[in-house]
Amino acid sequence: MLETRNLTIKFGGHVAVDHVSCSFKPGTLTAIVGPNGAGKTTYFNLISGQLRATEGQVLLDGRDLSRLPAPLRTRAGLGRAFQLTQLFPNLSVLENVRLAVQARAGRGLRMLSVWLHHRDLLDEAMAIVERVHLGDKAAAPAASLPHGDQRKLEVAMLMALKPLVYLFDEPTAGMSVDEVPVILDLIRALKAEGQHTILLVEHKMDVVRELADRIIVLHNGQLVADGEPAAVIASPVVQQAYLGLAVEQDVQVAA
Ligand SMILES: Nc1ncnc2c1ncn2[C@@H]1O[C@H](COP(=O)(O)OP(=O)(O)OP(=O)(O)O)[C@@H](O)[C@H]1O
Ligand SMILES: [Mg+2]
């Protein structure tokens, strides 16, 4: 179980995440919604360790991870999609995923005393590359991929780590319409596996409605709603604070 207790960060005088207390059970997908600047990405950064909290804690299965740097939180099971800057741009798609598989296998090595051969690592990496529909680009340098494929690679790297907690921050942002279903299918499949804790920041309310077991709403860094999707979407706070804004944005996009 992932839990944040009074999680808070201040940038100067601005409280970007404001005493957020929330827990997330394995086997559930929670959507995090809220207007631009609400603190959603910052909340993820606090959980994954890219940012250190001003106040409050992040706990995974009761263990306080708040003082750990990001790599050790990854090792503990908090999976944040890699940013492109964390990939090896000149290595192939397959090699990048293999390195992530290897990082995880190395972690298991001490516990299981199982030696994974190079071939096994490559086979596992290739299976993941195919799962994200990048099989035909396995040999391409990561840097050469178009945007949508880069996002698929990010998801592949995350899956290779087999985290306990998956943090997806707008995984379909900037993707073309025909690429979006690939990512959504992957998230749906991860959810169907039943044991992962999945947090998804997503602006598309139809996606949220379909995938989420629960929605939490952040507004000005505060947790302002939390519950079953239909009830949260219908609540006045969401209608005003979030959907009103989303409608305006859609109009702008259409215009
Ligand atoms: N490193 C930083 N230094 C200063 N201010 C920051 C920093 N990171 C985020 N902020 C501020 O914190 C607030 C929350 O930003 P955040 O990116 O978490 O919003 P968000 O909910 O993810 O928005 P969006 O939907 O646009 O992605 C914003 O006001 C932002 O300007
Ligand atoms: Mg964001």
UniProtKB/TrEMBL annotation:
Highest taxon in the source lineage: Bacteria
PROSITE patterns, A to Z: ABC_TRANSPORTER_2
Keyword Nucleotide-binding: yes
Keyword vocabulary terms for this entry: ATP-binding, Cell membrane, Membrane, Nucleotide-binding, Transport
InterPro entries: AAA+_ATPase, ABC_AA/LPS_Transport, ABC_transporter-like_ATP-bd, P-loop_NTPase
ABC transporter domain ranges (all copies): 2-245
Xref: CDD domains: ABC_Mj1267_LivG_branched
Protein name: ABC transporter ATP-binding protein
Source organism of the structure: Roseateles koreensis
Lineage: Bacteria, Pseudomonadati, Pseudomonadota, Betaproteobacteria, Burkholderiales
